[in-house]
Amino acid sequence: MIFSEKIQKAIDLAIKIHQIEGAQVRKGTTIPVITHLLITGLILARAGADEDLITAGILHDVIEDSTKTKITKKYLEKEFGNRVARIVVNLTEKSKSKYSWDQRKQIILNNVKKWDRDSVFVKSADILHNIRDNAVESKRVGKDIFAKHFNAPYVKQVIKKRLMTEALEKIWPQNPLMPEIKKYLKMFESLGK
């Protein structure tokens, strides 16, 4: 599955939420957030995911990033089906205004243990792109990028990414994205040496 009306509908919604509502960019860059969502969907498509998983990959941040439209699980169920909505809700972090970075990451890490393979696959694509971007960007400009542009310093980022990788691998050891995740995690961790 490369493209469908459902995937186009997901792209349209992601563009609306991440571009039109606030022109959101990746931390520490001028790169639009929409690129992360599209790349997450592309990673899933290249790994053989079906339409629902690709759609969930494109929409995985839409609930937490919708500031004006306020996308809900109910809306996602109506527009994209129960499976997509469940995956997106699983990957949605708690409110940034109520929880610290550490708390939000720990809540997701605790919840991973309850996820099905669908949610693990989509989170794996998300983390693969994030780790790859963090490793490449830190290598280019230095790990101080985290102190300047992120909610947590480099050392905390490494620890949480390692713990998430271990949790995802424990649930699904044969995950086809795991070798790439480990490759970029190793590159990311090596910046601290």
From TrEMBL:
Superkingdom of origin organism: Bacteria
InterPro entries, per this entry?
Answer: HD/PDEase_dom (IPR003607), MESH1 (IPR052194)
Q: For the HD/PDEase domain, which residue ranges apply? A: 29-140
Gene3D superfamilies linked to this entry: Hypothetical protein af1432 (1.10.3210.10)
Gene Ontology MF term list: guanosine-3',5'-bis(diphosphate) 3'-diphosphatase activity
**Organism listed in the record:** candidate division WWE3 bacterium RIFCSPHIGHO2_02_FULL_38_14
In terms of SUPFAM superfamilies, this protein maps to: HD-domain/PDEase-like
Q: What is this protein called?
A: HD/PDEase domain-containing protein
